[in-house]
UniProtKB/TrEMBL annotation:
It comes from Clavelina lepadiformis. SUPFAM superfamilies: TPR-like (SSF48452). InterPro entries: DnaJ_C3_Co-chaperones, TPR-like_helical_dom_sf, TPR_rpt. Pfam families: TPR_16. This is Uncharacterized protein. The lineage of its organism: Eukaryota, Metazoa, Chordata, Tunicata, Ascidiacea.
Amino acid sequence: MEKCFKKHARKLLSQVPIILVLLDLHFEGIEGVEKAESQKHLSRGNQLLNAGQLADALTHFHTAIDKDDRNYQAYYMRATVYLAMGKARSALPDLHQVVKLQPSFVQARLQRGNLFLKMGKFNEAQTDYEVVLAHEDHLEATAKVEEIRPLRRNVNHASKLLEAKDFHGAINLLNQVIEVPSCPWNADYREMRALAFEHLGDLRRAISDLKPTTILKLDNTRAFLRMSILWYNLGDVEQSLE
């Protein structure tokens, strides 16, 4: 019995390399099919995107990524749809993935740099623009790098003016930072400007600045509390409770 078992085991072991090769070929075949399916969905998604059918295009880009999670073009196109839908927060992780899979993809770097700039993340934006410029002469990236310098300077100066209680001066500088097309999605700068408005007694404009920060920052209970107090001070108890 033991001799028979050993003989059978040796026979199986001798077949292992062949089995492994067959398994590799099998998995490579499956992977090839999945990649082909991914490209098919990517192509269909592009057609729908060009036709303005964003939701349908998004579905195909989802499937393209499910079929091949290394298809950087699918991530980029899905990010493009998210941006067209106004969902920048959803687009950013996809752009991160594109840059991770294809660091030299200039257009993804540029798109991500633009998002970082709108979020007021100057260092991250500048890094992406500089990578673009390292690959090619790019007018937009050059202009954006030049734009960052005064924005960063204005934020630092506005912070000092708030400390010095020069609220009008701080608001003027923050207006230049926040208003489109600069950094409309930065919650901290809006909170700074809201504080200046509050000190000047312009409570409604303070509330207007605080309101978007409840979306820009996750679980921003502090902003809700500040708005509640401001509404109460304006005599609107119902809004305050809400």
